Amino acid sequence: MTPLDSSDALWNLLEHNRNNCEWKLTVMATSAVARETVFALRRQIAKIEGTLPERLEASAGAAPIDANVPSGDATPQNLTIVRHGLAVAPPDAFLRTGAEGLDTALSGGLPKAALSEIHGTATRDAGAVTGFALALVSLILKQGPRLPVLWIGTAEIFREAGFPYAGGLHALFGIEPEQLLFSEAPRLLDALWTAEEAARMTALAAVILEIRGSPQRLDLTATRRLHARAQNAGRPVFLLRQAGEPEPTAAPVRLVLSAAPSAARETIAGPLAGSIGRPAFTVSIGKSRTALPGQFTLEWNPHEHVFKERRIGEERAKNPVPVVSASRRGKDPAAASGAVLAFPAVEPPALGDQPSPRERAAHRRPRRAG
Amino acid sequence: MISHRQGNAQRIAALDERAEALHLKRGMGIADARAMLPSIDVVEADPEADRRLLESLADWCDRYTPLVALDAADGLFLDVTGCTHLFGGERSMLDDILSRFFHQGFDVCAGLAATPGAAWAAARFASDRIVPGGEEEALLAPLPLAALRIEPDVRASLESVGLRTAGAVMAAPRAPLARRFGASLLLRLDQALGRLDEAVSPRLPVAPLSVERHLAEPVMLTDDIERLVRLLATTLKADLERRGEGARMLALLLFRVDGAVSRIAVGTSRPLREPLLIQKLFHERLAALEQDIDAGYGFDLVRLSVLSAATFDMQQADLAGETSDDGADIALFADRIRARLGESAVLKPVAVESHLPERAVAMLPFAETPQRISPPKKPDKMQGTKPVFRPERPIRLFRSPEPIEVPATEMPEGPPMNFRWRRALHRVARAEGPERIAPEWWREAPGQEEAPTRDYFRIEDSDGRRYWLYRQGLYGASHAAPRWFMHGVFA
């Protein structure tokens, strides 16, 4: 076995381990023993990977992991891993989102020189996925020099989810049209090639690669190449995957995005009922080397270009309709946090969508008894 | 074997030697020919294919001179002024042309003269002849009138008065000739004799700079071609430096041994003269064209031309010898992407003054100079005051608005209560609007029906997704019910 092969195998093993960890966490988050096992395993991975060991710490002030879970029960759900020895990494290695809870959960923020995955469970979540990615880009541009941003997409995704509209980006994210470059590739292969070439450029502030679904070509190897180039160049590469399944990739962080009801517009007389104000996103940590899976609701402030975390009590009080879980039908990212277990077994009736298999079974039964 | 064409009757258009030996002639009716020889093989003429063949030959003739012009359906003009010494003189150049054509399987008649008219006559009526300057008259005198490139009816009327050779026409007094047969006869005569200049209009624009390399051993491998490009670009660099220019458009011509010519062009977004960068661009282009370029038996002539050049701004290097120019990196990157994926692979949004959202941002191919397609604003009193209200625009816009079904609205002119988009029903939780955008009547062609106005709504559905919908048309304004469209999504 050549050294390259063995390192590949080790990497695969690590990747597998990590996924296993998450899986275990989702299932056994309540059992303290299991959690201990998980963290022992994580420490082991950390040792193999040569990173610093981590410490499990119950942070009192940290944000709850899931906003949907009624707080107050004694289960120590709000556990956060805080990585020791952050000083080893350069202080600007992480992009702080500004939302305390998310930053803490990600142990300092999103890595700046890395590939980061941002998932949307359905194509119609494109607005949330795009908005969150652009908000991150806006944060990067605020800190660094005003370099251009390259947005690469396949023709398919631009057709299905709409072409990014420069007219709307400036008002919301402060990104000038002059700073944007778009590349539309007819095939995924061309998009990947463009992204690989772009990822090693230091003259770009960030590269956004947007694809749809879970194509085979974008496997561990392809993402590792992107990740390595991003690390060398010291620039972030955001991989936006609309309607994609979580798959093993080389990206250290995967965030799963869905839309959250926006905040009401602020007026002098208080919040204006029925208005659509600041955009909000529900961010779940799908994968991270350090974090527990968690879910956060962030609000984007388009005037100051900062994120604000929305706490439980700040949910819109008088919502005319019940807020349904955004990703009710897909692979539920919320399930990763273990919080969905708390939901009643019966799903809310689907609004004109395809009824779930369970509902369909109910349809077949005769309904009217008399 | 005879090809033929339509002329109210099927007639012979061209024929080979064996058919000629059987006493068939051009212009003979096919029915007559068949009556003489029932076994002849007749093929329909294909002028388009002939044209393509002639153009490919013209491409190939580029190796002798950049000034190649097509002449009717079966001739080529090569302006070899100043080129003959490269091939060892006029005679050896002509021999080279004839032998190369012969090896490609063409039977070519060629003539070389100081004027296009004389060369034309020499090629068609005195094959393989080189006419030194000043001897045009001696060449033309014994030739028939057809050698003068005059219209058939003029020729017929000249023959009817007994002037049957060019020499006879030259000897005749000019004034009666012009009066009787028109000025075109004398014009052709003067052009042939060199009394009037005649310009040959070349097929392709002449490149301001080009370098080439003849290869004793044909190359086939892409790597070899790239290395040659680098060598040629190094030669080109000195020329560009002398002119103070950089290349904006480069073409690589690969002449295959058997006569096919591949022409590969790349554009650059800023003037370029660095050989390594030029090689990189052609590397991408060749990688993209790998399937299309057939090396066959190899290329024996490689030429690199600068099709268009622009002033090259010198960059000041710092003391470490490095120029930190991010723009150059991006320009080169964009050029490489475009070389591989096509001209529109890298796009840049440009703001356009328009109310219609789909028209307000134009996507242009990447270019160095940032431009706005709006006329420069006149300084007026309002300058400095920003608009108080800036309408919110989505972050993604569908290229063509997608029709949605709206079963019910709260009020006739209000936002929908729910809508069906891509077969999924969305319940509207909150809505803002309408924002009315009227069509731009000043763009419409007169007589064209006015496009309906659009009322845009910002919608948030029960899952928190935000959309931009519009209703086209008004209720009760026309017979057709208003239609609803999905136009974009918000963050």
UniProtKB/TrEMBL annotation, chain A:
Residues 318-370 are annotated as: Disordered. Coiled coil: none annotated. InterPro entries: ImuA (IPR017026), P-loop_NTPase (IPR027417). Residues 361-370 have a biased composition (Basic residues). This is Protein ImuA. The lineage of its organism: Bacteria, Pseudomonadati, Pseudomonadota, Alphaproteobacteria, Hyphomicrobiales.
Automatic annotation (TrEMBL), chain B:
Keywords: DNA damage. One of its GO terms (biological process) is DNA repair. Residues 7-123 form the UmuC domain. Coiled coil: none annotated. Residues 402-487 form the DUF6504 domain. Belongs to the DNA polymerase type-Y family. This is Protein ImuB.
